[in-house]
Structure formats: C-alpha cells, structure tokens
C-alpha cells in the first residue's frame, strides 16, 4: 500500500497542471487522485470543531481530518499553474478550491 501511494505521488507531478482551460477534465483527474490517496472525503465531510471535553477518539478523528484536509489542499494547489496558485494560495479549504 505505501509503495502504491509513493508511486502515485511521484506520478502526480506528471499530471497536467490546470491553466484555466479544461477545468472539468482537471477536476475529475484531481478527484481521482484524491480518491486514490483516500483523502477525498474531506471535500464532502464537514470540519470537526474542537470541543472542550472531547474524547480521545474524537481528538483522533479531528486530527485525521485536519491532516487529510491539509494533504488534499496541498495536492489541489500543486495541480495549479503558478499563476493560479498565486491567486488561490490563500483559500483556506480544499473544498473551496475544487
């Protein structure tokens, strides 16, 4: 499993970066990549808010979601051209980018 993720992230650099045209094609390829990395759920799952008395399990789930959102966000930004990256780098959520 780890080897396939490593291969996928290595091949990710070979995917075409979005230049502002063919957005739909790029979006579907990005969705496939995020599905392969098992982080696509953050695009449809709401953020876990921090609770004062949260259990260890709730802390783990929130932490995993935050980490997966960071990975998802980074891959989406990496799939953009430099011009688009400069425009969208301050967007806070992966869901807003895709």
Characterise the protein shown here:
There is one protein chain. The chain is mainly α and 98 residues long. The protein has one domain. It has helices spanning 2-12, 23-36, 56-78, 82-88, 94-97. The model has no long low-confidence stretch (mean pLDDT 85). This is Zinc finger, CCHC-type. It comes from Sesamum radiatum (Black benniseed).
Structural class comes to mainly alpha
Number of strands: 0
Q: Major beta sheet, specifics? A: none
Q: Mind telling me the C-alpha Rg? A: 15 Å
Q: Give the % helix.
A: 55-70%
Tally of domains: 1
Query: What is the succession of H and E elements?
Result: HHHHH
Q: In DSSP terms, counting alpha (H) and pi (I) runs of 4 or more, how many helices?
A: 5
In angstroms, what separates the terminal alpha carbons? 26 Å
General shape: elongated
Strand content: under 5%
Q: What value does the average pLDDT take?
A: 85
Give the low-confidence spans: none
Protein name: Zinc finger, CCHC-type
Task: Give a quick summary of the entry.
With 98 residues, the protein is mostly helical.
